[in-house]
Amino acid sequence: MINGPTWSQKLRAEIGKAVIGQDAVIERLLVALLANGHVLLEGMPGLAKTLLVKSLGTALGVQFERIQFTPDLLPSDVVGTMIFSPKDGGFATHKGPIFANLVLADEINRAPAKVQSALLEAMQERQVTIGGGSHQLPRPFFVMATQNPVEQEGTYPLPEAQTDRFLFKLLVDYPSADEESAMMERWGQVTKQPELQPVSSGEELISLRTQVDAIHVAPAVQAYILALVRGSRELAAQAESAGGAKRLLNFGASPRASLALFQAGRALAWLRGADYVSPALIQEVFHDAVRHRVGLTYEAEAEGLTADKILDQVLTRTPVPATKG
């Protein structure tokens, strides 16, 4: 039987041949794979977001497709279309790049609304509609999308209904000085990327989920998850006080946040070799699972507050249960 740390280590080692650093992001991507969730990666250009997802697909041994989103993209460019065949006078289904195990939606916020809605069906239902017929997507199926946080021209911000369907929103930061120095030493005189080899498979990933499902979540930890999520809603519901305290959130996290914390907590516990979910593990994934599910007020943004800073307040106010399983 494969254990979490061993599986994680072999994938990290293979991905590390192409990607230096980003250890925390890689671990979250593995958590999302095990929890059967999609991921939104946000970061400045040049931080190897695309390379990271591509390397993950190669190391995992699954079919990988990359879709470069542009304002003129059509839904049929993503899901496929019906093509007329002159030989028999009929129409045949031509499947698009969405029919892959791991789909990289590069610069997803450049896609117009019709393309985003087509992707939404694929993410939620794991099926697409072509020519009036439904087609199941392969298993496993994941969407890992990237977006640039600074560019506004020619972009279409993702609606809350779509961002809520991502298990995680991960913030990809600049590498450390040592990591950036190692990049220059490794790639400064190299003309091509290393060839990665598959060290796992889609079938293995699906089978590992049965082990993840067996991870114990104590009632006290479930109650802690609910308290954190409902704490964000309480911040959104509170009116401005007479003393001038401003409302920070327009809306709190949806029930999908509770499910995301529950699933991600079990997956992270399995990766770390634990057989139960602790409150500390929930705290680790809290920001990644919730930051894209809350809406900041204008006043909060004007004060320079971020979703993470407001979620820090929720963590501080919520009592931590004393439990070990």
Outline the structure in words.
The mean pLDDT is 87. This protein is globular. The chain is built from 13 helices and eleven strands. The strands form four sheets. It has a five-stranded parallel beta sheet. A two-stranded antiparallel sheet has the order 3-4. The chain is an alpha/beta fold and 325 residues long. It has helices at residues 4-15, 23-34, 49-60, 75-79, 113-125, 160-163, 177-187, 202-213, 219-237, 255-271, 279-290, 298-302, 307-317, and strands spanning 38-42, 64-68, 80-85, 90-95, 102-106, 127-130, 133-136, 142-147, 166-171, 249-251, 295-296. It has two domains: 20-29 and 36-187, Rossmann fold; 209-317, Orthogonal Bundle (Helicase, Ruva Protein, domain 3).
